[in-house]
Amino acid sequence: MKIVQFTDIHIGAKGENTRNVDVRENLKSILKAIAGEEADMVVLTGDLCFNEPLNNTYKWIIKQLNKRGIDPFVIPGNHDNSVMLAHHFDMPLIDSEVYFKHEVNGTCILFLDTAIGKMSPAQWAWLENHVHSAHKLVIFMHHPPVHANVPFMDGTHAFEEQEKFQELLAQRQDTVEIFCGHYHVDKSISLRNIHVHITPSCFFQIRDDIKDFGVDHYRIGYRVIEMSNGLISHSVRYL
To answer: For residue 19, what are the contacts with CB-CB under 8 A and spacing of at least 6?
Structure first.
């Protein structure tokens, strides 16, 4: 089972200046590379839009995906609108959140909605049920559920319910692999039984050695995840 994850594409409106980065060309390059992977599943983990969610932006992204024959699982980020995203990408919508599961060869893959920086009580109850019942668990979410030693993001844009999330996952006896984005870095963090893997953005990467915001570099990439015989391996591929 091969999964490709990409994240934080931040597509602006047509003609909008997106920090002098051609994010539309970046997406086209990423989709070309992904199409060559022949993955069994493609996952886009949020922040599809530059600043504000726009219907025309989602429509343009879908057009590019269709050109490459890519039909991804999509979850929202903090620059998305969950209802709008669910409508355009035909993702499951529960009240105003996009969260769902997908089972593959005995592994329960959960897709969470952290677009507002936290989750509703209903989504928490749903997550708790699967944490306790799933034989093997893998999670995709936008926000990392841990601090990642990226001072700007940890200090101003962190997931608001990290401790609650960590305590819930700690009730499992096995390791849970979590794949996310949001921080615009390439990092893996292990905390007790959770292994959190942050995939770099398709926009720019953020410096982790200063307190304030700063761009580290403009290389873009995606993550390839392979699941076989109960084992998971993964790596980031930069363009």
So the answer is: 203, 204
